[in-house]
């Protein structure tokens, strides 16, 4: 995947936030990395982007299992955001899950372009679809 | 012998119209039985009214009540999915069948009719149906448990793997690299045990899903399962030669599990002085699908051969796994109704012969 302006990481485990940030930096995937440790905070940010008409992130790296609002809950709310915002955003799901249902469920959302198993590595980033 | 009556009411279109009995009878092969004329219930101990449900549940309750009132002692069999409010009828031995159970109705009916099933057997059938539902629920919960437990066990492992990956990239000291390699190997081993346990429980609990398969189509999945294998300098695509064109029917996921385990063993136990070669071929006959997996690895000593499919059995000298891999292979093949044999010669290689049924009954 070519370099983008902003990547959002939604991940509740601080160690994984650290890993993802470092790997993205090393792969020079984005100018700016914005980590959120809850799906709710990330949604607030996206709603603000939409209301203030600022440029949304091109890529969201989304964990599945999170307390309160999980990755799938996030996707459902995300689908209700304005198209003007959604069309810019690609979502990559990142998880330790071995459940095939998680993968098919994730890929059934039109905004989700890939389902990646943890940990994130440079090779996996290179395989993100454009 | 008591006579038996079956009234079939259809609620399609809102009218009480009788099903076209002859057609149904042909389908169900029940022609030797006496059936009632429209709406009339014959004498005998066993009376059934089959109601095909297509209206509202209130409507159904009303019609069923009418039938019950007019024909005391009649048993009602209702065909249709998810009918709310049917608990009302349970005291009157109403059997509610879902769409999938309707497929089994011919067998059930002929059993009821032929054997003049007693009231207690009928009750037992209802009980069995309830037990089945309960088991399905337990199975589903177990499934959820396995996936969420395995996820929680793997999360810290994947974090450590991520950190080791960064360490490898950021720290260039030679000594450190070796420690990173060993740590990574240990973590991957633990991760593989968790994967094995999930595969084992998945095989035990999920229904067979039989479809047409070409071996070549499975190889992408097999290869992605092998990417965790510690095999530096080995190109798995080059090492594995697969029969590309033979089409046969089997369960795709289970076959992937089987090949995954066998091929990863072939790579793990490759011969140190030659590059690994693994040939996977298929032969289909009228009754059997035979899959051969042949490698040029280190081979298995005679005295291990009889025990390699046992749970947790490990050949002491080289094995690095959990002792679950070949046990899972054997269990998975059992579930498919097949068999596996092994021939091996030390220093020459190993040959696994898998025989699976060439046909499966529908819904199995």
Number of helical segments with 4 or more residues of chain B: 11
Q: Strand-and-helix sequence of chain B, N→C?
A: EEHEHEEHHHHEHHEEHEEHHEE
Largest sheet of chain B: 5 strands, mixed
Most extensive chain contact?
A: A-B, 22 and 19 residues
Characterize the overall form of chain A: globular
- The proportion of strand residues of chain B reads 15-25%
Measured distance between first and last alpha carbons of chain B:
36 Å
What do the pLDDT scores of chain A average to?
A: 92
Reported for the largest beta sheet of chain A, the result is: 5 strands, parallel
Computed structural class of chain A: alpha/beta
Concise structural overview:
With 130 residues, chain A is an alpha/beta fold.
Protein described:
The complex is a heterodimer of chains A (130) and B (364). Chain A is of the alpha/beta class. Chain A is built from 6 helices and 5 strands; from the N terminus they run βαβαβααβαβα. Chain A has a 5-stranded parallel beta sheet with strand order 2-1-3-4-5. In chain A, β1, α1 (14-27) and β2 form a beta-alpha-beta unit. The longest helix of chain A is centred in the first third of the chain and has 14 residues, at 14-27. Chain B has 364 residues and is α/β, with parallel strands linked by helices. Chain B has 11 helices and 12 strands. Chain B has a 5-stranded mixed beta sheet. In chain B, α7 crosses α9 (252-268) and α9 (252-268) packs antiparallel against α11 (325-335). Chain B starts with a strand and ends in a 7-residue tail after the last strand. At the A-B interface, α1 of A face α5 and α6 of B.
Q: Could you name the key traits of this structure?
A:
heterodimer; A: 130 residues; alpha/beta; 5-stranded parallel beta sheet; 6 helices; 41% helix; 24% strand; globular; B: 364 residues; 5-stranded mixed beta sheet; 11 helices; 46% helix; disordered N terminus
């Amino acid at each position: 995947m070519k370099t983008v302006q902003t990547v959002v990481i939604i991940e509740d485990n601080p160690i994984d936030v650290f890993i993802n940030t470092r790997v993205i930096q090393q792969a020079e995937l984005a100018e700016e990395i914005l980590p959120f440790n809850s799906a709710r905070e990330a949604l607030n940010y996206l709603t603000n982007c939409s209301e203030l008409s600022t440029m949304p992130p091109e890529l969201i790296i989304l964990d599945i299992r999170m307390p309160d609002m999980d990755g799938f809950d996030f996707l459902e709310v995300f689908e209700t955001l304005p198209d003007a915002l959604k069309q810019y955003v690609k979502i990559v799901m990142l998880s330790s899950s071995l459940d095939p249902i998680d993968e098919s469920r994730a890929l059934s959302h039109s905004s989700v372009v890939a389902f990646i198993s943890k940990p994130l590595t440079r090779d996996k980033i290179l395989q993100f679809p454009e | 012998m008591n006579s038996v009556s079956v009234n079939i009411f259809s609620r399609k279109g809102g009218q009480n119209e009788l099903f076209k009995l002859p057609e149904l009878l042909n389908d169900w092969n029940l022609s030797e039985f006496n059936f009632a004329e429209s709406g009339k219930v014959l004498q005998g101990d066993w009376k059934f009214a089959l109601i095909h449900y297509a209206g509202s549940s209130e409507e159904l309750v009303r019609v069923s009540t009418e039938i019950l009132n007019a024909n005391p002692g009649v048993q009602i069999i209702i065909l249709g999915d998810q009918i709310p409010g049917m608990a009302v009828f349970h005291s009157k031995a109403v059997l509610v069948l879902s769409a999938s159970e309707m497929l089994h109705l011919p067998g059930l009916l002929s059993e009821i009719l032929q054997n003049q099933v007693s009231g207690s057997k009928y009750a037992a059938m209802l009980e069995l149906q309830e037990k089945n539902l309960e088991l399905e629920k337990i199975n589903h919960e177990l499934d959820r448990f396995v996936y969420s437990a395995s996820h929680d066990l793997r999360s810290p492992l994947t974090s450590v793997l991520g950190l080791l990956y960064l360490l490898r990239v950021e720290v260039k000291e030679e000594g450190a690299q070796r420690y990173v390699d060993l740590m990574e190997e240990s973590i991957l081993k633990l991760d593989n045990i968790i994967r094995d346990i999930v595969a084992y429980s998945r095989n035990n609990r999920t229904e067979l899903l039989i479809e047409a398969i070409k071996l070549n189509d499975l190889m992408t999945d097999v290869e992605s399962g092998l990417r965790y294998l510690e095999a530096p300098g080995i190109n798995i695509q080059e090492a594995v030669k697969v029969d590309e064109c033979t089409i046969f029917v089997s369960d795709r996921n289970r076959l992937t599990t089987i090949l995954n385990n066998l091929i990863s063993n072939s790579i793990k136990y490759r011969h140190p002085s030659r590059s690994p070669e693994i040939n996977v071929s298929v032969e289909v006959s009228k009754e059997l699908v035979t899959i051969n997996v042949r490698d040029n690895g280190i081979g298995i000593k005679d005295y291990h051969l009889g025990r390699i499919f046992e749970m947790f059995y490990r050949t002491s000298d080289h094995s690095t796994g959990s002792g679950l891999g070949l046990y899972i292979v054997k269990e998975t093949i059992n579930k498919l109704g097949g068999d596996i044999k092994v021939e091996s010669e030390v220093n020459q290689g190993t040959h696994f012969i898998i025989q699976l049924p060439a046909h499966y009954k529908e819904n199995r």
